[in-house]
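User: Show me a protein chain along with its predicted structure.
Assistant: Here is one chain, sequence first, then structure tokens.
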Amino acid sequence: MNTPRLTARPAVGAPLVLGRGVLSRAVVTSLRSALPPVCAPEAVLAADPWGEDLQLALHLLYELHYRGIEGVGDEREWDPDLLRLRRSLEHRFLHALRSDLTDSPRTVEEAFAPLLVEPVDLSGSLTHQLETTGELWQLREYAALRSLYHLKEADPHAWVIPRLTGRAKAAMVAIEYDEFGAGRADRIHARLFADLMSDLGLDPDYGRYLDQAPAPLLATVNVMSLFGLHRALRGALVGHFACVEVTSSPGSRRLAKAMRRCGAGPAAEHFYAEHVEADAVHEQVVRRDVIGGLLADEPELEADIAFGCAATLLLEDRLAAHLQSAWQQGRSALRTPLPKTPFRLV
């Protein structure tokens, strides 16, 4: 695509979007009014833990711990009424994850061994589909959705650093140093993804596509915040991080080819090409030193690490199924389709 280079605005908070149900409307109203959220306690129990309402409500509450939300005071981050509601939503989400993963592996070996071998049959792989038959409009949708994480890439995992010690901490910091550009602002992975969005004619502003993101995508981002904000879930966060690093290199290789085949642009291809090499190295470090170091210090966290890996795969599979189902029917996987005219900053 021959679109002009787009530049994201200086870091600002996520947009405050419209609610999608009782819970998310209560959160939005509370954030706008600075009053406590009003919803019946049974509303959380009645909500679909995978649904649009609960996942959006949780996502908005989590954004208070990142860059905040436009028009919402910074002090709301620790508002006790919002925190109480967030705790209820988290319990519902975490219970759903654990219920769906009752038969999942409980050891690191069982959880990660299958991920270390490239599957012979890639027919069900979303990245393989994009590599071989994906169209530019599908790559644009994929990037718009993934921007909700990639524009804060590595931030959720940074929360685990003060909760680690010794070898695990040192290795985690080394990987995060790469993720944050190794001291160069122009190489921060979130910046590289903003450049990818520019090549695809997408708006690179933080949180721009939140209103169009369906629940399966929100859940993949929410789980990182859930694990990251709770010290008790530090093992699960390490498992999530390790799963992402182990599976990133093959998927990134396929996505780089997809971007090149569709003529998406050099920055679009570069983002994934950068991850092929970097994450291949990170995979070794995270398995040997981050997981190995954590298990040496706290062996009782092994089941939590395995759970974090399994939860990541579950949510990624749910997202892939959502995207593939929509695209097979020739329709947008977003809640509202992207404009056909590429975005341009004025």
